[in-house]
Fold Histone-lysine N-methyltransferase.
Amino acid sequence: MAKHAKHARTDDTEAKKSDSAQAKSVPSDASPQKGGEFVASAHHHKASRRMRIVLIVVSVVLVLLMAALGYFAWMLVNEASDAASYQSTVQTEKVDKGESAPASDAGKSAAARKEAPRLADLIGKSENEAIEAIGRGATETSAKDITEETGEGDDKTTEVVGRSVTLALTDETTDAKGNTPSVYLTLDEDGTILEAGYSASVGSLGYGDVSFVDAVTSEHLVENLVDAAGMEIEEGSIEMPAVEDYRTYADDGKTIAQELYTFGGEASGSDGSSYAWSCKLSYDYSAANVSGNLADTIRQVYVYVKAAS
């Protein structure tokens, strides 16, 4: 019995020593480590929430900026359309009411205007004679053969039946858009001029930024050019065509895209000969519709003369 009691006490002592050793083997920082992980996790959640808030704010700002840009783009398009539509309205009213242009839209004084060469006097001359008669620094800038096919099948041949020549009037002022007044000659196979033409911008002729309607009805541009080209024509004899005959619109149906019309007739020259003439007036609003500035309109006029058939 004594031995058994001794063994029991020994076992108790060993158990206590074992428990004490296990207690010592446990790391002293176990509890603080778990607390640190909790704190780090909390900081991570806070940072994630802040990042989400920042992303939301940035997204809202971007949406607002896109909306603002869209609004301003819409305003610019409307302003350009309104500018072009304004001229359409003004010109339409003038056609309907027969009103003249405002003073600010009228061309320059007659003294400042330039005249077309006497084209009628060139008919029947050679190219060299025409260059001498025209003056104004007339210089050939291009020439092209006029050909005609004759025969059938294997017998078909191409013959040169004439030439077309372009002369730049280098002594005359080129307008702001780079258009140089030019003369166009059509010659037969013998080198005799059959038809003569002239082109220039309306502005370079001294008519300023005059509107299409006023160029015809108030400034009498067509009659002035035909008269200067060497043919007799009465001022005021040219009438304004119907709007649908000379005006085309953009896809919106309101903005003027172009105003174009070819006037024509026959008239006597200073030598009593009869001539056929045509005068094309062209107003292209493409650039003006983009910029919203009517001064960007390309205003060109072409006049041609040939012997009446």
Summary: Helices lie at 2-25, 30-97, 127-134, 203-207, 212-217, 221-228, 243-246, 286-291. Residues 103-307 form one domain. The beta strands are 138-150, 157-169, 182-188, 193-201, 247-249, 256-268, 274-284, 298-307.
